[in-house]
Amino acid sequence: MPSVRKKLAAVTAVAAGAALVLGAPGAGAAPKADQNLPKKLVKAVNPDKVQKHLIAFQRYADQNDGNRAAGTEGHNKSAEYVASKLEAAGFDVTRQEFEFVYDETVTETLTVGGEDIPVIRMAYSANSPEGGVTAPLIAIPEDETPGCEVSDYSADVEGKIAVIQRGACTFAEKQTAAAEAGAVGAIIYNNVDGALNGTLGDPEVGAIPTGGVTQEDGAKLVAAAGQEATLDLQGITEQRTTKNIIAETKTGRHDNVVMAGAHLDGVPDGPGINDNGSGSAALLTTALELGATPKVNNAVRFAWWSAEELGLVGSEYYVSQLSESEQFDIALYLN
């Protein structure tokens, strides 16, 4: 079970990393931290304790359409679970609500020459017409900045579905350039092994239906250039409210804070236990074992972000709400 061992080792590393910085004295602070705290914390944070929180996250997903995506009841229950555990342990807890544009995939299909090619709709992609868009494929040449500029597209792209290699610029920039050149759809293929699950990062930029495929399937599409394909990408995009959970120790300097965070939300397609329930559970275990009043020089702040899967929305919102002084109060951040 090497994958399980790697996961458990990662959990231990999270605890160890947090413990090692706790004793770092802030500028001008008189040393008062428990010098044995790092060792105690690493020993206290164990897989069995982390597993209990993962079971809870899985239960909330099972009770709420199988997922814990931001803006859903599955995530709300997970967030309240984390907050209540921290409050019971004596932490100062903040539920930071914010609005965001929720995005959920309804349909994602790609057919070329009668063959179904697995495709993943990118978050915030524009929707295809009902039944999908049917047009010839056109392969965009691979270079150092493939499909990043309108000049990368020939006049022949007009009315076609552009097949573009990943890399050098954002998915949003690729589909924007393709749309400006006249493409009616964009398929971005990976430049490494594995599926390509991406986001355009901004609900305002979706110009044409945009999906991701593997490197292997990308090669098939490039070889099939000129053939007609049907790309059907449909999604729900709407305004919703979600929340970050922030907790801070009552001891330590609050003007020289050590901070650690993980995203609590998952994708709509599953319970999000590996990504990133595991990190959230490890972080929660670390916080609870540390306690609200540890003997530390620096206050420790923990964060469970929401809407990360839609483009780091929750963490970026948090930073945007900090004053310049509050930003300087954070000595370091462990993700």
UniProtKB/TrEMBL annotation:
Keywords assigned: Hydrolase, Signal
Top-rank taxon: Bacteria
One Pfam match: Peptidase_M28
One MF annotation (Gene Ontology) recorded for this entry: metalloexopeptidase activity
Domain Peptidase M28: 244-335
InterPro entries xrefs: M28_fam (IPR045175), PA_dom_sf (IPR046450), PA_domain (IPR003137), Peptidase_M28 (IPR007484)
Residue stretches making up the PA domain: 133-221
GO BP annotations listed: proteolysis
Lineage, top ranks: Bacteria, Bacillati, Actinomycetota, Actinomycetes, Pseudonocardiales
Residues in the signal sequence: 1-29
Protein name: Amidohydrolase
